[in-house]
Predict the 3D structure of the following.
Amino acid sequence: NAGVTQTPKFQVLKTGQSMTLQCAQDMNHEYMSWYRQDPGMGLRLIHYSVGAGITDQGEVPNGYNVSRSTTEDFPLRLLSAAPSQTSVYFCASSYSGTSGADTQYFGPGTRLTVL
Amino acid sequence: KNQVEQSPQSLIILEGKNCTLQCNYTVSPFSNLRWYKQDTGRGPVSLTIMTFSENTKSNGRYTATLDADTKQSSLHITASQLSDSASYICVVSYGNNRLAFGKGNQVVVIP
């Protein structure tokens, strides 16, 4: 049981490049989400999904796209990277949404730098 | 604007001593309150989750309290260990799958 996995661990991009951050979970969780964590700020929700085929925007969705074609995978796409997207990105999953009392499991994070 | 405020921002404690971290929130409608531990360079790990009707919950040496009337929570660490050095994040769930994150309490345990 690997839990929540994220790849890559580190990435450097140039402004304007695009890329996909991968996230997968093997716990059969319906709810998955992406966060970014910046120094001096709390985690902020980018996008989330309550099940395969269903996604919704979080607090800071601009510049990011997501899709959920399977229960296991929830990739995050940066369309045209900007320096303001330099951050640490965390993927998380749980059986149900965060309104319930299910434990939310976080991945190890992807550290992204945009030059 | 929904907010979660944590205090102190950082503290240093001696190994074996106790400490208490504070979390005040203004979010509504309240669903639950979570405390996470985040080691440097790692993702957050859940410590406790409390719903409106719960006022205390323990996880080993960690004990969280919740006063939903005053919108305050605390996390007490008993007999601290070097491995307790981390950031402790208070998170309040509200509305429909919305989360408000505090900025964290940075704890450093020294021998």
Summary: The two ends of chain A are 36 Å apart (CA to CA). Chain A has a mean pLDDT of 95. Chain A has no helices and eleven strands. Residues 5 and 24 of chain A are 5 Å apart (CA to CA).
